[in-house]
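User: Hey, quick favor. My workstation is busy. Could you predict this chain's structure for me?
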Amino acid sequence: MSTRPAGPPLLIACALGIEHLALRTGDRSGAGGQLTVLRTGMGPEAAEKAVTRRLADPALSEAAVLATGFCAGLAPGMHPGDLVVAEETRDPRGTVPCVATELLVKELVRALPGRTVHTGPLTGSDHVVRGQERSDLLATGAIAVDMESAATLLSAVRTGARPVAAVRVVVDAPEHELVRIGTVRGGISAFRVLRSVLPAFFEWHRSLLLPRR
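Assistant: No problem, here it is.
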C-alpha cells in the first residue's frame, strides 16, 4: 500500500504571547504533517534570530513559513478584526513575494464569513507606528505594518528556497488606534479572529503539495 508523501512541514511564526495563545487554542484538526508554532518575541531582530535558529533544524530545512499575528492597518476604512493577506513583505533590507495569496484569501473568506480581507504589501517597522508615520507608510503603497513579518520571511528565504506567506489581523487602524492589545473591544475582536485562521493556513499548506500547472 502506497502512502502519500507528507510534504514539507509548516512553521507558523508569531511574536506575542497573546498571539501564541490564540493559535495554540485554535482548531488544529486540519493540520497535516508536521506543524510548529513558534513564538519569536517582539521586533525584527528577535524574529530574525528565532526563525533562523529554528530553521537550522534539519527537520525544518524545507518547511513552509507563514508569519501571522496582529498588525496596524494603514488605509482609511480598516477596522479591528479585518484580515490582511500580504502580497509581499518589505523592509529596508529587501522585499519578499508571498506564495498562493489568492488561495489564502479564498480560504479566509470561507473560514471567517463576513470578515473583510485586504490584500497588498505589508511593511515592516522596528517600532509601533502612529499618526503621521502611518500616512507616510500608506503613501509607499503598503496597506498594513507590523514589526516581525518582513524579518520573518526574509530570514526564511535566506536559509533556503521555500514557500512563504504572511497573514495579519488588524488590531489598530487609523480611526481605531489602541493603547494596549486585549484591553479593549478591538483587541478582543482581533484575538477571536486569530483563533479562527488555522483552517485557512492548513489549506494553504496542503495546496503546496499539489502539482503546479
